[in-house]
Design goal:
- The complex is a heterotrimer of chains A (306), B (315) and C (614).
- With 306 residues, chain A is mainly alpha-helical.
- Chain A is built from 13 helices and no strands.
- Chain A has helices spanning 2-6, 10-16, 26-36, 38-55, 91-127, 129-144, 147-158, 162-189, 192-199, 204-240, 252-255, 258-262, 269-296.
- In chain A, α2 (10-16) packs across α8 (162-189).
- Chain A starts with a helix and ends in a 10-residue tail after the last helix.
- Chain B is mainly α and 315 residues long.
- Chain B contains 13 helices and 2 strands.
- Chain B has helices at residues 2-29, 34-41, 47-56, 63-75, 90-124, 129-143, 146-161, 176-210, 213-220, 225-255, 257-262, 268-277, 281-309, and strands spanning 81-82, 87-88.
- The longest helix of chain B is centred in the middle third of the chain and has 35 residues, at 90-124.
- The N and C termini of chain B lie close together (5 Å).
- In chain C, the strands form 9 sheets. Chain C has a 4-stranded mixed sheet, covered by helices on one side.
- Chain C is α+β, with helices and mostly antiparallel strands and 614 residues long.
- Chain C is built from 22 helices and 24 strands.
- In chain C, 32% of the residues lie in helices and 19% in strands.
- Chains in contact: A-B, A-C, B-C.
- At the A-B interface, α1, α2, α6, α7 and α10 of A face α1, α6, α7, α8 and α10 of B.
Chain lengths: 306, 315, 614
């Protein structure tokens, strides 16, 4: 699963490929998005709600999520809305705080992979020649090793703090991003406006950043929103294998770990609440990503897609 | 075309060597080594033991020589000695490769059985309630972590009916039927996400076809909608799908590590985990190299298929 | 405090668990004289049923359990009166996460090897901890003419398995060869843990085929218990030499009750009855005249706990080889065909420091000890079923009383903070303490103690996650180490019982290997402390009078606890849970609960399977 997530193969690339389009201005775009993409809008609201939970975690009637307590494995009730775990920690608090690492990893890793991937793609696609050959061959090699292997080796090597996980997942996603975007850079490279800019003597960095990059924005957004759920699931898989976030940290994936599986039969709330939170969030990001793609992708617009 | 093929074929070994050098370097900077792991497993924590073990495993040789030894072993088809197996890697490697491929193939077949009908239904009923439902199910399949599903599927039947769905491993040679029965459940769980992915691909490629010019022409000719869908849309979409499946399948080798772990299937993913935790570099190197070869070959085949499916693509 | 419905439900369930007050057996026993040796339970066999590292699921105190559970109605040793009497036959199906680290009985120490050395090899003796008594296996009897000589007489008709040297007779020469092999096995990447078990033996002579004469280097009263462990396997010379003195991959080289027929065939291990197995007349201990009742034993390994549980619940496995605590035990109570047993706990749990760094700072050590709320630890980590720990394992007669232990280990966070600040804890340790977390074993203890230190001392605790390979080098690297403390525990008492806890405190055991408690350390305080500790240890070890030795050991414990160096005992569980399928009859619960490499149900031959039940 992790691998499917991390390997945005050329197939997926083909899927996203060649989708240039006008950049949708966000100001006017939001209303149209809500109107044409009701499911996407619901997903967006859910994501915002999760983000609010995470951002203001201390204010949602929570206690410190890592605080041990004497109420061991209490069922959901008035004192503990979602029950407690084996360490007597309040599950409501842990579910609320658990949104933080999920969003940080989802957003952080994807942002990092987009930055690295786009930079590589711009260099390779725009400069061409030997630079392109080196980068392209390098990407092929990097992509030929399953993402999971990179994740396993790198987390073993570097450790498992959240920053490291963000970096590891971000870096391991970036070759796929670069491969997808490079094709578009090539198209833009030979477009009229770039030639025009070259004629009037604009420098290469300027052309790349001022002319090509804005035109890549829709594709970057599509790729980015498709990768967020993949990043969250990749982290969950790593944690399950014991190579993700440290045990004990307030995180949905950690809460789906050994204790949740061990006490499943008598304490159903242990696996259910973090599992539902994780799945719904990933689901929302998937729906939202789909909607973004439909909105930003002119070719599929009007073809009956939500 | 021929020149292209030769160039691509030549790229594979170069890529493999490059990759194995990177992996080799990464494994050598990991903290701890196979010598320590081996002594630790024996409860011996002395530096002397570490040194003896390292010497025995050839870890005291210069790094370049270590790499060369591994490479020549690997090329000769016998990828070296495993410190954790205390035997040649090849004693387990091929069996594990075969298990992983079987698990992957089974889950791919199941994914197609699940994914294609949902995708087709979704496309021809686009915008209708069935479409929404089908797509929601597909997205759900992509959103629920598979280890979570596996846990539920193992624990609940055992609790309610005393049914064990995580039986012992059965080898193909011993009992083919039992063997595939053991594989069926993990394959089905892995197929959920893959099937959801396929459903989405089928839907979007079919929609594209339905709106394409030649389908419009076919309709204009007065063909029944059913015939249009079957003859033009589905067939063309399937070709796209199969090229995509090829690439999906390349991810399958490593993709089922969690299923292998939970259901105790002796496969490549579990092997890799074992190799990393025992600092058994030969396992890590060999498994990752096989992954890479597999990936590169499949990519080549898929690229060739593209040109076969779509004659406009020429190399 | 309103509990949820289910919480109440579980809490109120009237336990129909069979309670065992077997602790008295150990408490009453006279366990050895000198304790050199150590638990077989190494720190690497992760999710093993022994619960190796501080998972706090198995363990604790015989004395406590004995007083808390006086209502035990059944006999301590046998589990239930068999309805029809023992039946021969059947396959015992185990399913565990044991890792196969090689089959050499003299070298490796994980639980998996213990299976093998218990089943496929014979031994001079079988030491039954619950009775504190050794029974003859190959030996019919032994004499000890003085403190340094032991002479064993071998049984008639003892033979190796058919595939081992054509099943020839086992002679005293084989005993001599096997015991002399220990040091050489060590050269072959052997185990320091096992080393402590045989180091007391000086020479072995075989004056005739039926007599083995052992000479000890010094008087050692724990010699017999130690030699009754499964590590003291008798191996066949020809096979051993043919294998280059490395039995790690040799399936059969002995004459145990079973022979190994399958090794790791897709995770399946299988042992079947050895047709050459000799008669035990009279059948003493757990031995049966015509060999064990059970025909074959199987271990189907899996690293996934949910899969192990499903196998046990469905009756595909006879033993619950996953971590059991009160909550799990309560769950299993209601399952048809499952019997849950309770036995006194037997764990030692330590807060291990790097002596190199901590020895010069007695006040900081005290601050750490004062910062740990042991009552809360018992309530939360041990779910209320725990007792104060001591350097000596719970359940031994020389362990300090709970009252005294409680007094010696107070909780005073304010005083802790004062000491820490006044004596510059933050300067010494740079404002943070570093610890190592083993990724292969969940450690709520690490988390709990870390949080308490953070709160009380105003520091941060930094955790370095380590996996198997990493952990070994991190734990054993020369001082100063990359960590300041880590949590260590031993869940076994079976090998050389009263040494298992002490090993973390003495310069001859883990205290040195892990804690850097080195008498020749370059840090003068560390060297001085280690030297004194070693002296005190040696003094008690040389005391031949039991009363005198117990008194010395108690004094030693007080000294260790009040000096807080360089290990702090943590509370330990007072109860161990076991669960077996109902068809497993006549289980020696207390011995089985020790779950250690050497003893337990693996060597119990009068255990049998009820064919009426599944």
């Amino acid at each position: 699963m992790t691998v499917q997530a991390t390997q945005l193969t050329p197939a997926a690339a083909g899927d996203l490929h060649d989708r240039s389009g006008r950049f949708v201005r966000f100001g006017s775009g939001v209303w149209r998005f809500v109107r044409t993409q009701p499911l996407g809008a619901v997903a967006a609201i859910f994501i915002v709600a999760v983000a609010l939970l995470a951002a203001f975690a201390p204010y949602w009637n929570t206690i410190a999520p890592q605080e041990f307590g004497r109420d061991l494995l209490f069922a959901p009730g008035s004192d503990h809305w979602l029950g407690t775990n084996r360490n007597g920690q309040d599950m409501w608090s842990r579910v609320v705080y658990g949104a933080q690492p999920a969003l940080i990893i989802g957003a952080g890793a994807v942002a990092l992979s987009l930055v690295i991937g786009t930079a590589l793609a711009l260099l390779a696609g725009f400069l061409g020649g030997i630079v392109d050959s080196i980068i392209s061959r390098g990407l092929e090699v990097a992509i030929s090793l399953p993402g999971l292997l990179w994740l396993l080796i790198l987390t073993t090597l570097l450790g498992r703090s959240i920053e490291i996980i963000v970096i590891v997942i971000g870096v391991s996603f970036s070759p796929a991003v670069a491969r997808i975007i490079r094709g578009n850079v090539l198209q833009e490279r030979f477009s009229m406006y770039v030639e025009a800019a070259q004629v009037i003597g604009a420098s290469s960095p300027r052309i790349m950043l001022r002319h090509i990059l804005p035109n890549l924005a829709p594709l970057v957004i599509i790729v980015g929103s498709a990768l967020v759920p993949a990043a969250i699931l990749a982290e969950a898989g790593l944690t399950f294998l014991g190579l993700g976030l440290e045990p004990g940290s307030a995180s949905w994936s950690v809460d789906l770990g050994p204790d949740a599986r061990r006490y499943f039969r008598s304490s159903w709330w242990l696996p259910v609440f973090p599992g539902v939170a994780l799945s719904l969030t990933v689901l929302a990001f998937n729906l939202f990503g789909d909607s973004m793609r439909d909105v930003l992708d002119p070719r599929l617009r009007g073809s009956g897609l939500v | 075309m021929q020149a292209y093929l030769i160039r691509r074929l030549l790229q594979i070994p170069i890529g493999i060597i490059l990759l194995s050098i990177i992996v080799f370097t990464l494994t050598r900077v990991l903290p701890g080594d196979a010598g320590e792991a081996r002594c630790g497993a024996a409860g011996n924590f002395s530096q002397e033991c570490f040194e003896v073990a390292r010497r025995e495993l050839g870890l005291d040789k210069p790094k370049v020589e270590q790499y060369w030894i591994w490479l020549s072993d690997f090329v000769s088809g016998n990828p070296g000695y495993s410190s954790s197996l205390r035997a040649d890697i090849s004693t387990e490697l091929w069996g594990r490769l075969s298990n992983t491929l079987q698990l992957g193939a089974m889950s791919m077949i199941m994914a197609i059985i699940i994914g294609v009908p949902i995708g087709v239904l979704s496309a021809i009923r686009a915008g209708k309630p069935e479409d929404y439902l089908a797509r929601f199910i597909a997205i759900l399949g992509l959103s629920v972590p598979n280890f979570w599903i596996a846990t539920i599927v193992i624990i609940l039947p055992a609790t309610w009916w005393g049914t064990n769905l995580a039986p012992e491993w059965i080898k193909l040679a011993d009992n083919p039927l039992g063997h595939f029965r053991v594989l069926a459940l993990p394959a089905a769980i892995a197929a959920l996400a893959a099937g959801a992915y396929i459903a989405r691909i089928v839907r979007s490629s079919m929609l594209e076809m339905l709106h394409s010019d030649h389908v419009r022409t076919a309709r204009a000719k007065g063909l029944f909608e059913r015939a249009v869908v079957m003859r033009h849309v589905l067939r063309n979409s399937m070709l796209t799908l199969f090229t995509i499946l090829g690439l999906q399948f390349s991810g399958v080798l490593a993709g089922n590590v969690i299923m292998e772990q939970i259901f105790s299937i002796p496969g490549m993913g579990a092997f890799l985990l074992k190799g990393i935790s025992a600092r058994d570099f030969n396992i890590v190197l060999s498994v990752s190299t096989i992954f890479a070869i597999w990936f590169m070959v499949i990519t080549l085949v898929v690229d060739l298929m593209y040109s076969w499916v779509d004659p406009r693509i020429r190399y | 405090m309103a509990e949820g419905y289910w919480g109440n439900y579980w809490r109120r369930r009237v336990s129909r668990r069979r309670v065992l007050a077997g602790g008295t057996a150990v408490a009453a026993g006279t366990v050895g004289l000198v304790a050199v040796g150590c638990g077989d339970d190494d720190d690497d066999d992760a999710g093993d049923e022994d619960g190796p590292v501080a998972t706090a699921t198995s363990a604790p105190d015989a004395t406590a359990a004995a007083t808390e559970a006086p209502a035990a109605t059944e006999a301590p040793a046998a589990t239930e009166a068999p309805a029809g009497g023992p039946v021969r036959g059947g396959v015992f199906r185990d399913s565990s996460s044991d890792t196969d680290t090689g089959l050499d009985p003299h070298v490796t120490v994980t639980a998996h090897t213990a299976w093998h050395s218990s089943l496929a090899y014979s031994h001079l003796l079988h030491y039954k901890l619950s009775e504190d008594r050794a029974y003859g296996d190959l030996a019919t009897g032994w004499e000890q003419p003085d403190n340094t000589n032991i002479i064993f007489n071998l049984r008639d008709g003892i033979r190796f398995a058919p595939m081992v040297a054509n099943g020839r007779d086992i002679t005293a020469e084989d005993v001599k060869f096997s015991y002399e092999r220990f040091p050489h096995a060590l050269e072959n990447l052997g185990s320091e843990v096992n080393r402590l078990q045989w180091l007391f033996i000086d020479t072995v002579e075989a004056p005739d085929a039926k007599t083995a004469h052992f000479t000890l280097g010094a008087p050692y009263a724990s010699a017999i218990p130690s030699m009754g462990s499964s590590a003291h396997a008798i191996v066949e010379r020809g096979i051993t030499e043919a294998a280059g003195n490395d039995l790690a991959d040799v399936m059969n080289a002995g004459g145990g009750a079973y022979v190994m027929v399958t090794r790791n065939d897709g995770g399946v291990y299988r042992w079947e009855r050895n047709p050459n197995y000799y008669k035990h007349i009279p059948a003493e201990g757990t031995f049966v005249e015509d060999g064990p009742y059970i025909d074959a034993k199987e271990n189907i390994t899996s690293s996934d706990e949910a899969a192990l549980e499903a196998r046990f619940l469905s009756g595909d496995a006879d033993r619950a080889a996953f971590a059991l605590d009160r909550f799990k035990a309560d769950e299993l109570e209601g399952v048809d065909g499952v019997v849950v047993y309770e036995a006194p706990g037997n764990t030692n749990s330590q807060f291990q420091m790097d002596a190199y760094k901590w020895a010069p700072h007695p006040e900081l050590r005290r601050a750490v000890s004062l910062a740990i709320d042991r009552e809360a630890y018992i309530d939360i980590v041990l779910a209320g079923e725990g007792i104060y720990g001591s350097p000596v394992g719970p359940g031994f007669p020389m362990v300090l009383s709970q009252e005294e232990l409680r007094e010696l280990q107070p909780y005073d966070p304010a005083e802790a903070k004062r000491l820490w600040d006044e004596f510059g804890g933050n300067e010494v340790f740079g404002g943070k303490l570093r610890t190592v977390t083993a990724t292969f074993a969940p450690q709520p203890t690490v988390e709990f103690v870390s949080r308490q230190l953070e709160e009380a001392l105003g520091i941060t605790v930094e955790q370095t996650p380590a996996d198997l390979a990493n952990y070994v080098s991190l734990a054993t690297e020369p001082s100063p180490k990359k960590w300041d403390f880590f949590m260590a525990s031993e869940s076994s008492l079976a090998t050389i019982p009263d040494y298992n806890g002490l090993t973390f405190y003495v310069p001859t055991g883990y205290g040195m290997i892990f804690g850097g408690l080195d008498p020749s350390s370059e840090v003068p305080e560390t060297a001085a402390y280690a030297t004194e500790s070693l002296e005190r240890f040696n003094t008690q070890a040389a005391a031949l009078d039991q009363e005198e030795r117990y008194a010395l050991l108690q004094e030693y414990q007080r000294w260790l606890i009040t000096n807080h160096c360089c290990s702090l005992p943590l509370p330990v569980p007072s109860v161990t849970f076991l669960a077996y399928r109902e068809r497993v009859r006549n289980l020696d619960v207390f011995d089985a609960s020790l779950g250690n490499a050497s003893e337990g149900f693996r060597r119990q031959q009068n255990i049998w399977l009820d064919p009426e039940l599944t």
